[in-house]
Design brief:
With about 290 residues, the chain is of the alpha+beta class. It folds into 2 domains: about 130 residues, N-terminal domain of MutM-like DNA repair proteins, CATH 3.20.190.10; about 140 residues, Orthogonal Bundle (Helicase, Ruva Protein, domain 3). It contains 9 helices and 10 strands. It starts with a helix and ends with a helix. The mean pLDDT is about 90. It binds zinc ion (ZN). Zinc ion (ZN) binds next to α8. One of its GO terms (molecular function) is 8-oxo-7,8-dihydroguanine DNA N-glycosylase activity. Belongs to the FPG family. It comes from Micromonospora inositola. Its cofactor is Zn(2+).
Amino acid sequence: MMPELPEVEALAGYLRERAVGRRVDRVEVAAISALKTYDPVPSAVAGRTVVDAGRHGKFLDVIFDGGLHLVVHLARAGWLHYREAFPSTAPLRPGKGPIALRVRLDDGSGFDLTEAGTQKKLAAYLVTDPAQVPGVAKLGPDALRADLATFAERLRSRRGQVKGVLTDQSVLAGVGNAYSDEILHAAKLSPFAITDRLTDDQLATLHAATRTVLGDAVGRSMGQRAAELKGEKRSGLKVHARAGLPCPVCGDTVREVSFADSSLQYCPTCQTGGKPLADRRLSRLVR
Ligand SMILES: [Zn+2]
């Protein structure tokens, strides 16, 4: 499952706890394609101290003294692994392994940015201003921090199915496929509801659901070890990735709609007046 706002927030929190105050020994890039910038060079980070860690939507931001930022988009299969120690001091060799980038700190600890699978989408940027990262520059307001007026204005600014609009990072930043399923379930809204037809009440409910679902997930994630975060995410979900299982709210069976490279899950009783949504992939097969 792709890391979304709560997981990235927790990773930033974890780095603030573990890495802030430590000086960087060196940065090793094993997957050349993962590093999207070439100036400043990775060696420019050596000798600098980690001063903070933060988040822009689903982007993680590791901040070094002198105003240098390592901004990372973990993509679908990326993760950050904090190491108390590394097995070897030998530099990583560029190759096919899951490690894209390694940051070694002065106490022997550090972290690896890894990506499983063959589709390499993890993107790291070394910049002096996070706004230099194209994906960060176009982010809408943060989904967890937007007040109701901003939230409603953003949602109505884009006409479309609410599931798609809620996950559009330029509308609101931080929500992806998993938490949008959870938010729509909590708000009792169909994923296919059209945004500009939502009433003020529905938008207020959706705003409250967004805050509750993301806030609860951040709360559950904080204090977890980075390695345990993914399991924690799965255990907190009510409909996402639970097709065929009972809805914990009403007991109806959670259903699924599949797309070319993704799927959504929802509860018919809670969200669509008991009616199953058309699964285009299935109806195409039937035809
Ligand atoms: Zn239900």
